[in-house]
Design brief:
Length: about 160
């Protein structure tokens, strides 16, 4: 599947999630805000929320639901960098980029409390926390989907394109 084909697949998936999967824009905004708060607490630069890679983040979260996994490769085998490139006009202009992925399947409703527990997983993980606090990032797009009482989330971080 070429990058353009992956992008078309991801756009369709995010536009019309399958079965009982639903997109949670409210929790996406919460995760963006929590990332900004975590960075402010560590005196990192401002992290602006962006729609630019929102579809890419949502599509990966949906793929994780469909494949019952958490990871940085799509169901069709696309790495994070390949998926990012499918949504970037000129990926070489983006010097810094990263991704966090998680799911929260504990008991209780799929609401704010569960999203906060999911976010805490990232803070408790050295690699995920480093991604979130990376000084070179200045943008974030979060994708959050729900299936039943389970949440799956992806955050994509990057710096604005150079030149």
């Amino acid at each position: 599947m070429a990058a353009s084909a992956y992008r078309a697949y991801a756009e369709q998936l995010a536009e019309q999630p399958p079965g009982a999967v639903s997109v949670r824009p409210d929790l996406e905004a919460l995760l963006d805000s929590l990332a900004q708060q975590a960075r402010a607490a560590k005196k990192r630069g401002v992290l602006g929320s962006s729609q630019q890679f929102k579809v890419a983040a949502r599509a990966q979260a949906i793929d994780m639901v469909l494949g019952d996994f958490v990871g940085h490769k799509s169901l069709s085998g696309y790495s994070f960098h390949a998926r990012f490139a499918a949504f970037a006009e000129d990926p070489d202009r983006y010097s810094s980029r990263g991704e966090n992925a998680a799911r929260e399947r504990s008991g209780g409703p799929a609401g704010e409390a569960k999203a906060r527990r999911l976010f805490q997983q990232w803070l408790d993980s050295g690699g995920h926390r480093r991604n979130m606090l990376n000084r070179s990032y200045n943008r974030v797009s979060s994708g959050v989907v729900q299936k039943g009482d389970h949440l799956y989330a992806v955050q994509i971080f990057w710096s604005e394109p150079e030149g």
